[in-house]
Design goal:
It contains 18 helices and no strands. With 444 residues, it is mainly α. The longest helix is centred in the N-terminal third of the chain and has 47 residues. This is Threonine/serine transporter TdcC.
């Protein structure tokens, strides 16, 4: 080959060249985010009416992309290409920083298990009573039976569970898209007709700004793939950093996060709009009061339809609750592994002074399982409102890890100095603070 005819490819062009592994990670991030939390987003977004959900549509992609990119940049800032987020934070802030991260990871994931414990109990009970037309069961026994079943699967079939979980992601996403499309013939104009621009208020309990503010929390919760960001960044650093350099590796990570965010927002927002146009803001408020996911409410809605129903309506009456149960089981198993890892880490750090070798793994897992399942059963039995629990506990802790920690590190860590003073930093900080301030709103 004549050297004069060789076309030189710059590192910037090489970093943006799409690879097969980029597609794999795009789908992996997308699949991680699409879980049981998506089943509650239409309820929070929908019962505020059409105007708030349109504002949320505008905010959805920036929230998903800028927040996860900020966390990825933090993970990229460590000197060790194979170092995860814990080792990176320890490098920047010492052992105390590592303990803080372990706490945040545990308390970001454990409340999600509590939420799923309530959700799966309510979903099973509403299916039992409304679709199967069977007598009501004792709530405490139902919650205990479901959690014991999951504990049995976890304890004796962890490897099988992980494999099954990975296979369930795509059928669940396909089901959401199929349901969204199949609901189109049932769309109505109730959500549009109820828009009265003259009577809309910005503030107050039902004001647009308050509704959007509360919706930000459920978006942070539903559009969240932060648990996998550290593994994603380590993988791309090991693959690309030696070849492209750190700056271009960051561009590659941002490119993948952007595409995963677009996919996620398209699926979730289409599902939310399809639910809103099929039901009404009053129906969404009813679903919130009944403390059930939107698929369970749709099943009850179609079972109560008068007159002759289509084949889809008859199928959805049963399929919607079953799809919701599968989604919750999938999310529960995935978050259980993260919670177990976090709690084991805390026990080792505080009870065994970090000496992991001296701890019998089987005993450690059993202690953690008893605490996790016991606390989840208690919350499932008490039956707090799921959306309130998300807004008051789940989303604020996720926001601390996803938004505020990277922004604090950007101001303090020299390796992140190049990212200071950017407009998107203000946006990410605002989203984190608004989500955490939900706790104050719920209290007062």
């Amino acid at each position: 080959m004549n050297p004069q005819n060789t076309i030189a490819i710059s590192p910037a062009e090489l970093s943006l060249a799409w690879r097969k592994t980029d597609t794999t990670w795009t789908l992996g991030l997308f699949g991680t985010a699409i879980g049981a939390g998506v089943l509650f987003f239409p309820i929070r977004a929908g019962f505020g009416g059409l105007v708030p959900i349109l504002i949320m549509l505008v905010l959805a992609y920036p929230i998903a992309f800028f927040c996860h990119r900020a966390l990825a940049r933090l993970c990229l800032s460590g000197s060790n290409p194979s170092g995860n987020i814990t080792s990176t934070v320890e490098e920047h802030f010492g052992k105390t920083g590592g303990v803080v991260i372990t706490f945040l990871y545990f308390f970001a994931i454990c409340p999600l298990l509590w939420i799923y414990g309530v959700t799966i109990t309510n979903t099973f009970m509403t299916f039992w009573e409304n679709q199967l037309q069977l007598p009501a069961l004792n709530r405490g026994l139902v919650a205990l039976g479901l959690l014991l079943l999951m504990a049995f699967v976890i304890y004796f079939g962890k490897d099988l569970m992980v494999k099954v979980m990975s296979y369930l992601v795509w059928p669940f996403i396909a089901s959401l898209v199929l349901i969204s499309l199949s609901l189109i013939p049932y769309w109505n104009s109730a959500a549009i007709e109820q828009v009265d621009l003259g009577s809309l208020s910005l503030l107050g309990g039902d004001g647009i700004l308050v509704t959007v503010w509360l919706g930000v929390s459920i978006m942070v919760f539903s559009f969240n793939f932060s648990p996998i960001v550290s593994s994603f960044v380590v993988s791309k650093r090991e693959e690309c950093e030696a070849e492209l350099g750190r700056e271009q590796t960051e561009r590659k990570c941002a490119q993948i996060i952007s595409r995963a965010s677009m996919l996620m927002v398209a699926v979730v927002m289409f599902f939310a709009f399809s639910c809103l146009f099929t039901l009404s803001p009053q129906n969404m408020a009813e679903a919130k009061a009944q403390n059930i996911p939107v698929l369970s409410y749709l099943a009850n809605h179609f079972s109560g339809m008068a007159g002759e129903r289509s084949v889809f309506a008859a199928i959805l009456e049963y399929a919607a609750s079953l799809i919701a149960l599968v989604a919750i089981f999938k999310s529960f198993f995935g978050h259980y592994l993260g919670t177990l890892e976090g709690l084991n880490g805390l026990i080792v750090k505080f009870a065994y002074h970090g000496d992991e070798a001296s701890v019998p793994e089987r005993r450690l897992n059993m202690i953690s399982m008893v605490f996790i399942m016991g606390s989840t059963w208690l919350v499932a039995y008490v039956n707090p409102n799921i959306l309130d629990l998300i807004e008051a506990m789940g989303a604020p802790i996720i926001a601390s890890l996803l938004c505020l920690l990277p922004m604090y590190a950007t101001r303090k860590v020299p390796a992140l100095a190049a990212y200071r003073g950017r407009v998107d930093n203000v946006f990410v900080t605002a989203i984190g603070l608004l989500t955490i301030l939900n706790i104050a709103y719920k209290l007062f």
